[in-house]
Amino acid sequence: LKVSAKAVYSKYSIEPASPINFGAMIKGTKKSQTVVLENKGMLHFKFCIRQPPEDASTSESKSSKEGESAPLATRLSTARKSSSLTQSHLSLGMFTVSPCSGSIGPWGQQKITVECFAGQEGKCEEQLYIDIPGR
Protein backbone atom coordinates (compact mmCIF):
# COMPACT_ATOMS: atom_id res chain seq x y z
CA LEU A 1 0.00 0.00 0.00
CA LYS A 2 1.55 3.27 -1.11
CA VAL A 3 0.50 6.45 0.71
CA SER A 4 1.58 9.99 -0.12
CA ALA A 5 0.65 13.53 0.84
CA LYS A 6 1.77 17.04 0.11
CA ALA A 7 1.57 19.76 2.75
CA VAL A 8 0.72 23.21 1.35
CA TYR A 9 -0.56 26.54 2.65
CA SER A 10 -2.72 29.30 1.23
CA LYS A 11 -0.86 31.57 -1.17
CA TYR A 12 -2.38 34.83 -2.30
CA SER A 13 -1.63 38.25 -3.68
CA ILE A 14 -3.40 41.58 -3.33
CA GLU A 15 -3.08 44.24 -6.02
CA PRO A 16 -2.64 47.13 -5.69
CA ALA A 17 -0.74 47.02 -2.43
CA SER A 18 -1.62 49.39 0.41
CA PRO A 19 -2.31 52.30 0.63
CA ILE A 20 -5.20 53.01 -1.70
CA ASN A 21 -5.35 56.75 -2.26
CA PHE A 22 -8.33 58.40 -3.90
CA GLY A 23 -6.52 61.74 -4.06
CA ALA A 24 -8.34 65.06 -4.08
CA MET A 25 -12.07 64.83 -4.74
CA ILE A 26 -14.77 67.44 -5.19
CA LYS A 27 -17.32 67.37 -2.36
CA GLY A 28 -20.39 65.40 -3.43
CA THR A 29 -18.60 63.24 -6.03
CA LYS A 30 -17.92 59.51 -6.06
CA LYS A 31 -14.85 57.53 -7.18
CA SER A 32 -14.18 53.82 -7.16
CA GLN A 33 -11.08 51.68 -7.28
CA THR A 34 -10.67 47.95 -7.67
CA VAL A 35 -8.53 45.65 -5.56
CA VAL A 36 -7.83 42.15 -6.88
CA LEU A 37 -7.41 39.31 -4.37
CA GLU A 38 -5.89 36.34 -6.17
CA ASN A 39 -5.54 32.75 -4.98
CA LYS A 40 -2.08 31.59 -6.10
CA GLY A 41 -2.24 28.25 -4.36
CA MET A 42 -3.78 24.82 -4.57
CA LEU A 43 -6.27 25.30 -1.72
CA HIS A 44 -9.70 26.92 -1.73
CA PHE A 45 -9.86 29.75 0.84
CA LYS A 46 -12.33 32.20 2.34
CA PHE A 47 -11.69 35.90 2.95
CA CYS A 48 -13.30 38.54 5.11
CA ILE A 49 -12.76 42.29 4.99
CA ARG A 50 -13.23 44.01 8.33
CA GLN A 51 -12.23 46.91 10.51
CA PRO A 52 -9.11 46.56 12.64
CA PRO A 53 -9.58 46.03 16.37
CA GLU A 54 -9.90 49.27 18.35
CA ASP A 55 -6.38 48.87 19.78
CA ALA A 56 -4.67 48.40 16.38
CA SER A 57 -2.62 51.40 15.31
CA THR A 58 -2.02 52.70 11.79
CA SER A 59 1.67 52.00 12.23
CA GLU A 60 0.92 48.27 12.32
CA SER A 61 0.09 48.25 8.60
CA LYS A 62 1.58 45.32 6.72
CA SER A 63 1.76 44.95 2.99
CA SER A 64 1.07 41.57 1.49
CA LYS A 65 3.61 39.53 -0.38
CA GLU A 66 2.77 36.43 -2.32
CA GLY A 67 2.30 33.58 0.14
CA GLU A 68 2.53 35.77 3.26
CA SER A 69 0.52 34.30 6.11
CA ALA A 70 -0.84 37.45 7.75
CA PRO A 71 -3.88 39.65 7.16
CA LEU A 72 -3.34 42.71 5.02
CA ALA A 73 -3.95 46.03 6.69
CA THR A 74 -5.02 48.45 4.00
CA ARG A 75 -5.19 52.16 4.59
CA LEU A 76 -7.83 54.11 2.73
CA SER A 77 -7.49 57.86 2.34
CA THR A 78 -10.42 60.29 2.50
CA ALA A 79 -12.76 58.66 5.02
CA ARG A 80 -14.34 59.31 8.43
CA LYS A 81 -15.02 56.96 11.38
CA SER A 82 -18.31 55.08 11.73
CA SER A 83 -18.99 51.78 10.08
CA SER A 84 -21.68 49.26 9.34
CA LEU A 85 -21.50 45.78 7.88
CA THR A 86 -24.16 44.10 5.75
CA GLN A 87 -23.92 40.71 4.08
CA SER A 88 -22.08 41.92 1.01
CA HIS A 89 -20.93 45.48 1.84
CA LEU A 90 -18.83 47.13 4.49
CA SER A 91 -19.46 50.85 4.99
CA LEU A 92 -16.73 52.76 6.77
CA GLY A 93 -17.24 56.52 6.83
CA MET A 94 -17.22 57.69 3.20
CA PHE A 95 -16.10 54.26 1.94
CA THR A 96 -18.13 51.27 0.80
CA VAL A 97 -16.32 47.98 0.15
CA SER A 98 -17.95 45.09 -1.70
CA PRO A 99 -17.92 42.20 -1.52
CA CYS A 100 -16.63 42.11 2.04
CA SER A 101 -16.47 38.32 2.24
CA GLY A 102 -16.35 35.34 -0.05
CA SER A 103 -14.33 32.37 -1.16
CA ILE A 104 -11.81 31.87 -3.95
CA GLY A 105 -10.93 28.57 -5.56
CA PRO A 106 -7.41 27.52 -6.59
CA TRP A 107 -5.92 29.95 -9.14
CA GLY A 108 -9.08 32.09 -8.99
CA GLN A 109 -9.47 35.75 -8.17
CA GLN A 110 -11.99 38.15 -6.67
CA LYS A 111 -12.33 41.80 -7.66
CA ILE A 112 -13.18 43.97 -4.67
CA THR A 113 -14.65 47.40 -5.30
CA VAL A 114 -13.84 50.28 -2.97
CA GLU A 115 -16.08 53.32 -3.49
CA CYS A 116 -15.53 56.72 -1.94
CA PHE A 117 -18.29 59.30 -1.72
CA ALA A 118 -16.73 62.65 -0.77
CA GLY A 119 -19.53 63.91 1.46
CA GLN A 120 -17.37 65.87 3.90
CA GLU A 121 -14.38 68.17 3.58
CA GLY A 122 -10.96 67.26 4.94
CA LYS A 123 -8.30 64.59 4.64
CA CYS A 124 -8.98 61.37 6.49
CA GLU A 125 -7.74 57.78 6.56
CA GLU A 126 -9.31 54.47 7.48
CA GLN A 127 -7.80 51.04 7.84
CA LEU A 128 -9.28 47.73 6.69
CA TYR A 129 -8.06 44.18 7.16
CA ILE A 130 -8.37 41.50 4.52
CA ASP A 131 -8.34 38.36 6.61
CA ILE A 132 -7.82 34.88 5.20
CA PRO A 133 -8.76 32.51 8.04
CA GLY A 134 -7.03 29.16 8.38
CA ARG A 135 -3.94 30.20 6.48
TrEMBL record:
Residue numbers spanned by region Disordered: 53-83
InterPro entries: Hydin-like, Ig-like_fold
Classification via Gene3D superfamilies: Immunoglobulins
GO biological process per UniProt: axonemal central apparatus assembly; cilium movement
A GO CC term assigned to this protein in UniProt: axoneme
Source organism, top-level taxon: Eukaryota
Protein name, UniProt field: HYDIN protein
Species in which this protein is naturally found: Agelaius phoeniceus (Red-winged blackbird)
Name of the coding gene: Hydin_3
